[in-house]
Amino acid sequence: MSLTTSAPHRTGPATAGPDRGSLTATARIVAGPGGSLPVLESAGPFALRRTRATGPYARVTVVGAMSAPLGGDRLALEAEARDGASLRVDSAAATVALPGPGGAPATYEVRLTVGAGAELRWLPEQLVSAAGSVLRTRTTVELAPTARLVLREEQVLGRHAEEPGTLVSRLTVRRAGRPLLDQELAIGPGAPGGWDGPAVLAGHRAIGQLLVVDPEFDDPAGRAAESRLLGEHAVLAPLAGPATLVTAVAPDALALRRALDEALGHLTGGR
Fold this sequence. Notes:
The chain is 6% helix and 49% strand. The protein is mainly beta. It has one domain (26-268).
């Protein structure tokens, strides 16, 4: 197994405080069959730790090594589950997007690859958009035809009693090289008008989605037949492929997590 810590490239002073310079860093995870982790490369704010797992999964927990992302940062996290592998990635704490000097936006890219007969569970903690921050996130997923995926994303608009920053989040998923899902959400003071209106968040301060891709959904008996509400805060929608998307809004992070956990249990049967 390759276990390394890479020094980030900084465009300013290498300090840990809020006035540190912007940084560029990419961390990598590669999982193989049998719970192996041939590559585990930490970088910048991403300290990757192998943690105890239940079931067939190799589990990696992302631990924050510094405050990030700050304005001007360019961060990336890559994870690959090779053919036949089972990988679960989570995080030790929420990620807080903070403003940087000069108001420059930060970028955070997540690139996921899931091979034939492999499964990836991508279950990080919430992303908090703090007041004054500007963050652009992009998650890109490449799936083999027989791959399985559970992906959860959660955004919280501001810390307690705080106005949100600007957040632009895009999720693109391809299966067997063909588009499965491509959507973008823009929220906060720098987003187009109407983001907090009744057609989008309706005043809620937490939003999230859960995407489950499973070849078993190709069987009509194994998937949701139509869109429907799940409780008070979530809606389930089958996609044009072996996938189901759950979208939820809630007044706070706790209610959001409860709604998505309930949906996950419903879709996976507690697996």
